[in-house]
Design brief:
Low-confidence stretches: none
Number of strands: 15
Helix content: 25-40%
CATH architecture: 4-Layer Sandwich
Distance between the termini: 45 Å
Radius of gyration: 18 Å
Strand order of the largest sheet: 7-8-11-12-13-14-15
Largest sheet: 7 strands, mixed
Oligomer: single chain
CATH superfamily: Ribonuclease Z/Hydroxyacylglutathione hydrolase-like
């Protein structure tokens, strides 16, 4: 099995886009990428715009290799409303009619209406695709973060060719005990998930962050899996300190580390990026 993160927060953009080859399966998961329009009171720095352009090019290039595409939920860093990514392919996407919030329901309906004429589109929840030499299956809806958070639900994907990879977007830790139990039951060899959102602690509370970290450690301890921990987790400049017990296991890496690339957590470093530009341009300030 080959697992290739295509774009990620540790690579400069908000994304969990991933390409997987397993047996005869050629799979593109969550082919979206975007930038936070405002963070630390600042818009994206030029380096972030450049990283986004590279991410989109990479996603579109790998889409040409994929026969299958998945969309875990309808936040715009997880999908693109671009027909050529999905055209002629089998697509499993979150059902916007069930277990979702109002925002994602609207986004999801627009996606289905735009893509149904281009792709073989099916609801992902609980679905399964057997290629003979590899199996793709989807979770039931799992909470986007904590139960009752208002952010709806996501669908995790498991790819199994004798080795087992689980892609669990936006479970944020996982914070939810339900999501944690599901991931333990899947017994992944490699798990890719969004980590505890420590950068949102003032909004969600320390207890939620600690619960997400505890669930992550439980998954590692009970399954022995390797974990790619990224997305929400690395938007905090102190993420290695805040999530130290996870990294101390020796089984947890960022997407950049998994690929052997230098980390570029550009959103977390946005104030420094703009400070350097301001220094070069005298009194010039970002728009």
């Amino acid at each position: 099995m080959r697992v290739i993160p295509l774009a990620a927060d540790s690579l400069g953009v908000r994304s969990m886009a991933t390409y997987v080859e397993a047996g005869s399966l050629r799979l593109l998961l969550d082919p979206g990428a975007r930038l936070s329009p405002r963070r630390f009171g600042l818009p994206p720095a030029p380096e972030e715009d450049e990283a986004l352009a590279r991410a989109v090019d990479r996603i579109e290039a790998y889409a040409t290799r994929a026969a299958l595409v998945t969309v875990s939920h309808f936040h715009t860093d997880h999908y693109r409303l671009e027909p050529r990514i999905y055209a002629g392919r089998r697509v499993w996407a979150k059902d916007p009619r069930r277990m979702t919030d109002a925002h994602q329901a609207g986004q999801g309906r627009a996606f289905w209406q735009a893509m149904v004429a281009h792709a073989a589109l099916k609801p992902a929840e609980g679905a399964m695709h057997d290629a003979g030499d590899a199996l793709l299956r989807f979770s039931p809806p799992l909470p986007h973060g904590a139960e009752g958070s208002g952010f709806g639900f996501v669908v995790a994907a498991t790819v199994d060719d004798g080795q087992r990879f689980v892609h669990a977007a936006d479970v944020q830790g996982p914070v939810s005990a339900v999501a944690a139990a599901y991931l333990v039951r899947e017994r992944p060899d490699l798990l890719y998930l969004s980590g505890p959102p420590t950068y949102l602690e003032s909004r969600v509370g320390r207890e939620e962050i600690e619960r997400g970290l505890a669930h992550l450690l439980r998954i590692v301890n009970e399954t022995g899996c390797q974990v790619i921990l990224d997305h929400h987790a690395v938007r905090d400049r102190r993420y290695r300190e805040r999530l130290g017990p996870a990294f101390d296991t020796g089984r947890v890496v960022t997407a950049a580390e998994y690929l052997g690339y230098p980390e570029q957590c550009l959103e977390a470093g946005r104030p420094g990026l703009w400070a350097r530009h301001r220094g070069r341009a005298g009194t010039w300030m970002p728009p």
